[in-house]
C-alpha cells in the first residue's frame, strides 16, 4: 500500500519538527552553501546534502543520483547511511518507472509501502529490503537533473511533514551541481582560451614582422618579440600601455585621431592606416593599423603590423641619389648636344645636304627624348628627397588644361586619337603650381593617347566637386586590371600582361604626377576596368574653401 501522499497532495509542514532540529538543518544548509560557494568541491557538498537529508527525515540511508544524458542513466554519485557503500557509483538505466519517480513536475514522491508500488524496481525490495522511499527531483532552471532519495528498511514510514526540509536540502544539492557545472564550463572555456592564446603567441613569436594588438580602449593586450625589438621596449613594458603612448611624441596626436576614426568605422568600409615613422634611434618603421570587428560588427580593437624598413629605405635613398647624380651629369652634355644639333639644322655651319639633315633630325629627336627622360629622373629624385619646390599661385585650371591639350594635339593626331575638353561651370581658380599641374595633365594625356586605339577619343573634364575643382582624363583603351591599379603609381612600374605601346616610356610619369598632386595636399586616383578604358582624376583646392584632401 502506498501512503497516499504523492505529487498531487498538498505539503503539510508540521510544527512537530522540533525547533532545535530546524535550527540544526538551517545551520547545515548554510554550511552546504559555504562549501558550494567557497570550495567548489561538488562531492563534499553532495556528501553534506546526503547527510543533512538523512537527519531531516530520519532516514537510514540517502543517496544523490545525477542524470547522465549521454548514457541515459541515473548515476548515484553520493550515498549516506546503511546503503552508502552499496549505492555510491551505481548506474541504473533511466527506465520509464524511474522517470516517473523523478518526474518532470518536480514534485516529491513518498512511497511508504514500496511492495505495492509498481514504479519501484523489484530489486530494491528483494535485494535491499527497502520498505519506504522518499524521492525529490533535483532541478536546475526547471530542468530535472537528478534526484535526492531517502530509504528505510526498519526505520518506518516517512512523515509528510518532513518534506519541506527535504526539498530545501534537494534544492541546495541542485545548486551545488549547477555551480560546479558552471565552474567546470568556465574553467574549460578559460583553458581553451589559454590554449588558443598560447598557440597564437607561438605563431606571432615566429613572425619576422612586429605585431601589436590593442583592445577597444587602446590598451595593448598582445605584442610579439619582434615588435618589442622594433619599438625598443621590453615586452612587459608594452603590454597594458596605451597604443598612442608607444609611438614617438610627434606622431601621437595623429595616431590618436586615427584610432578614433578607425574605432568608429564600419567593417564594410575596410578602413586602415599606413605610415612610415622615423624612430628617435634612426629606424624607419612602416606601420599598418587595421580595426578588428566581431562578426556582429562590434569594434574590439586594433591590430598593428610593424615592419622595420630602415635598410630598404636606405637602399632606396642610395638609388635615388645615384639616379639624381647620373641625371645631373647627363643634363648638361645633352643640352649642349641639342643646342649644337639645332644650330647645325638651322644652317649655322653652312649648307647641309638632305641625307645629313634627316640624320641630324633623327638625332635631335632622340636627344629631346633623352632630355625628357633625364628631366623625369630629376623630378622623381626631387620628389623622393622631398625637395620638389612648388611655386604656388592662384591659377586658372581650364587655362592650364587647355594649354596641355594644345601641346598634345600633334601627338594625338599622329595616333589618330580625337581630343576633347569639357569644362562645366564658371572660370575655376585654384591654388597650385600652374606648370606642374600642366605637367600632370600632359602625363595623363600622353598615357591616354598612347593606350587608345586609332579612331578612339580621349576626354578631359574640368568641374567643381564640393570645395574642389576636379580634373579627369578618360580614355577608351585596354583599361587596367584591379590588381595593377595601385602599382602603376610606383616608379618604373609598367603594368604586366599589357601590350605596351612602342613609344618611349620610363614608368615614371604616374609616380611623378602622384608626387606633384600629393604635394598639393590632394590625391590622384584611377577608375578602370579591363576592356573598358580608364579615368585618371585629381582635385585641387579653391582659395578660401576647405582644403581638398582627395578627389572622391
Ligand atoms: P609609362 O611611361 O610607362 O607610361 P607611367 O607611370 O605613366 O609610365 O604609367 C605606368 C604604367 O601604367 C604604364 O606602363 C601602363 O602599363 C599603365 N597605364 C598608365 N596609364 C594607362 C592608361 N591610360 N591605360 C592603360 N594603362 C595605363
The amount of helix comes to 40-55%
What integer value in Å does the Rg equal?
Answer: 43 Å
- Unreliable spans are 1-15
Number of helices: 14
Mean pLDDT: 87
Terminus-to-terminus distance: 90 Å
Strand order of the largest sheet: 3-2-1-6-5-4
Structural class: alpha+beta
Silhouette: rod-shaped
Got a strand count? 18
Strand content: 15-25%
Bound ligands, named by name, code or SMILES: adenosine-5'-diphosphate
Largest sheet: 6 strands, antiparallel
Short description:
With 552 residues, this protein is of the alpha+beta class. It contains 14 helices and 18 strands. The strands form 4 sheets. The protein has a 6-stranded antiparallel beta sheet with strand order 3-2-1-6-5-4.
What does this structure look like?
By secondary structure, the chain is an alpha+beta fold. 42% of the residues lie in helices and 22% in strands. It contains 14 helices and 18 strands. The strands form four sheets. The protein has a six-stranded antiparallel beta sheet. Strands 8-7-11-10-9 form a five-stranded antiparallel beta sheet, sandwiched between helices. It has a five-stranded mixed beta sheet with strand order 13-15-16-18-17. A hairpin with a 4-residue loop joins β1 (61-68) and β2 (73-81). α1 packs parallel to α6 and α10 (310-345) packs antiparallel against α11 (354-385). The chain is rod-shaped and about 145 Å long. Mean pLDDT is 87; it is low at 1-15. Adenosine-5'-diphosphate binds at residues 443, 447-448, 451, 475, 477-478, 480, 488, 493-495, 498, 500, 505-511, 534.
